[in-house]
Amino acid sequence: MSTTTRTPLEEQTASLKERALAGGRINQLPFTTDTEDCLENHLAITCPLCAHNYVHFEHPTYYNGDDDYKTQSGVRGDLILIPFWGECGHVFNVCVGYHKGNSYIFTQVLSTD
Questions:
Q1: Where would I find the beta strands (DSSP E) of 3-101?
Q2: Residues 79-103: what's their mean pLDDT?
Q3: Which secondary-structure segment (H or E) carries 108?
Q4: 43: which of 14, 29, 36, 63 is 20 to 30 A away, CA to CA?
Q5: What is the C-alpha to C-alpha distance for residues 90 and 28, in angstroms, rounded to an integer?
Q6: What is the pLDDT of residue 17?
Q7: 29 or 84: whose pLDDT is higher?
Q8: Could you count the other beta carbons within 10 Å of the beta carbon of residue 41?
Q9: Confidence (pLDDT) at 41
């Protein structure tokens, strides 16, 4: 029986995939500073509706939340919104916002056609 040694990123990615396949909630994302690791571990952004991986982003927008929910996104602080369109036909935003000291990444689906 052959055993292979995984990098910490590979371990984290495998764990997240296992939890997702088991229907578990994923509350952390594997990040890497090595593009090669990202490509080898298939850490691609996919459509939140159909999981198609051919998605393209446009110019991001920064919104000042003034620590007062002014972005109307559910987060209290500022928000960075990155529009995406998928070759699947879906349109969505990937958002990075902060709330009470924590930063969150979430999506907003704009088109289901």
A1: 55-57, 61-63, 79-86, 91-99
A2: 89
A3: strand 102-111
A4: 63
A5: 24
A6: 63
A7: 84
A8: 19
A9: 65
How many whole angstroms separate alpha carbon 26 and alpha carbon 45? 15
Six token digits for residue 79 = 């928000």
From residue 103, alpha-carbon distances to 1, 57, 98 in Å are 42, 21, 4
Instruction: State the virtual CA torsion across 10, 81, 65, 30 in degrees, nearest 10.
Output: 0
**What's the average model confidence in pLDDT over 45-68?**
88
**What are the two backbone dihedrals, phi and then psi, of residue 17, each rounded to the nearest 5 degrees?**
-65, -45
Three-class secondary structure of residue 8 per DSSP: helix
Q: Are 83 and 93 in contact (CB under 8 A)?
A: yes
Domain boundaries in the chain?
1-43, 45-113
| Helix (H) or strand (E) run with residue 35 in it | helix 35-40
The answer to whether residue 47 scores a pLDDT higher than 90 is: no
In the block, which residue shows the tokens 């198609």?
A: 52
pLDDT at 36: 75
Q: How many residues does the chain have?
A: 113
pTM: 0.67
